[in-house]
Amino acid sequence: MPVKMLIVIVLALFVSGCATTTKKASNIELQQLKGRVSGLETDLQAKEQEVMRLEDELEKAREKRVIYKEEKIREGRPIESKKLSDRQVQTALKNAGFYRGSADGKIGPATTEAIKAFQRANGLKADGVAGKKTRANLMKYLTGPNDDWVK
């Protein structure tokens, strides 16, 4: 057998062996990546379930807070509160459906008229001033993470 032919055969075997080794390494790496993706998908599902559970807990807590406030208002018991800012008054009026403007914290004619309408609808003196009773009634329309009106 000529030397050239022997060299060609050896090179062919070497190249095919390298290709097989590279292919096996690629398959192993691919399997590892698939396993990692599968693990991440499982982690994601667990996190999504945890988020749903926490959202349910938050909604239940908000419902309890609103019910508690409504009971105190119905019973005429005072609600310990901070003074509402003008922006919070506007937000509560908006949530209650009495104010359509932006909650910019500026009490103008539209806000004053909204306060009067809210007061009339809630059997309060319609003077356009968000006093203690008006604030107590508005508080049930303020919800969210900074809702610390009831102690």
Description:
Helix content is 68%, strand content 0%. By secondary structure, it is an all-alpha fold. It starts with a helix and ends in a 13-residue tail after the last helix.
Structural class: mainly alpha
Helix-strand topology string:
HHHH
User: What's the total helix number?
Assistant: 4
Q: Would you report the number of β strands? A: 0
Low-confidence stretches: 145-151
Distance between the termini: 98 Å
| Helical residue percent band | 55-70%
Shape: rod-shaped
Rg over CA atoms = 35 Å
Strand content: under 5%
Mean pLDDT: 81
Q: What about the largest sheet?
A: none
Give a quick precis of the structure.
The chain contains four helices and no strands. By secondary structure, the protein is an all-alpha fold.
Keywords:
mainly alpha, 151 residues, rod-shaped, disordered C terminus
Helices and strands in order:
Layout: H1 3-74, H2 86-96, H3 109-121, H4 132-138
